[in-house]
Design a protein that fits this description.
Layout (H helix, E strand, L loop, with lengths): L1 H17 L4 H13 L1 H24 L1 H6 L2 H25 L18 H11 L2 H15 L2 E4 L8 H4 L4 E4 L2 H28 L3 H37 L1
Antiparallel strand pairs: 1-2
């Protein structure tokens, strides 16, 4: 029973990381409506590959080292910001197409461009680094987490009813199962909707461009303020 609970909790954690709106889902959405479901899945697979990399790095402790070096973190954020602005321009260009390409014009579907795009963005995304520093490290550390016992008022009555075994293969496997569920279901839903709503493709592409540009500007601002703060601190010291 505890194995099933841990598996289910892992799926929830995976969906919690993969589902919220952000640059990764903007890329997946753009690839899905402009190039098809396979291209959207490939983009999602790129983001999932980054999670696998972060999983290994968190396991050996490298992710914590990156966060402890503010200048390195600022450089990663700046690179991510520049890349997001670049891909925002690419998404805006893709919005010129009113419909997903027909079967005779689909060479980009298997090109792997979306995979590379999402992989690079995910590897330079500070939010994913932060996830693996917090939730990710907690998932990897062996132990037990009594989830409902932490609830106010009713926690004492519900203690022991939802215990997750952290560090277990079931929890980690469930996490990646949750991510896989999203990167399959999200592109499938978008493509199905695009077939019914002819204007969906350009709208999604424009929305993706806006999201990527917004995060790009924010990341560059975050990197600049971090570097300024470090420079001031160095001047004081």
């Amino acid at each position: 029973m505890s194995t099933l609970v841990s598996l289910g909790a892992g799926v929830v954690f995976g969906l919690a990381l993969a589902a919220p709106p952000g640059p990764m889902n903007a890329v997946i959405a753009e690839e899905s409506v402009l190039r098809g479901r396979l291209a959207g899945f490939q983009a999602g697979l790129g983001a999932a590959t980054a999670d696998a990399v972060f999983f290994v790095l968190a396991y050996v402790g490298v992710v914590a080292v990156v966060e402890s070096l503010p200048l390195l973190r600022a450089a990663m954020v700046a690179v991510g910001g520049v890349l997001m602005l670049y891909f925002a321009v690419d998404a805006a260009r893709g919005a010129r197409a009113s419909f997903r390409p027909t079967s005779g014009d689909e060479p980009a579907i298997g090109s792997g461009e979306g995979f590379r795009k999402a992989l690079v963005l995910a590897l330079t995304n500070p939010y994913q680094v932060l996830f693996w520093l917090t939730v990710g490290v907690g998932m990897l550390r062996p132990g037990e987490l009594d989830v409902l016992a932490r609830l106010p008022v009713v926690g004492a009555d519900l203690a022991g009813t939802f215990v997750v075994a952290t560090g277990s293969p079931a929890l980690i496997g469930g996490f990646f199962l949750g991510v896989l569920t999203w990167i399959v279901g999200f592109p499938t839903g978008l493509v199905a909707a695009e077939r019914r709503i002819e204007t969906l493709a350009p709208v999604v592409a424009i929305g993706s461009a806006i999201v990527l540009a917004g995060f790009g500007v924010y990341f560059l601002y975050d990197a600049a303020t971090t570097i300024d703060a470090l420079a001031l601190l160095a001047g004081v010291v």
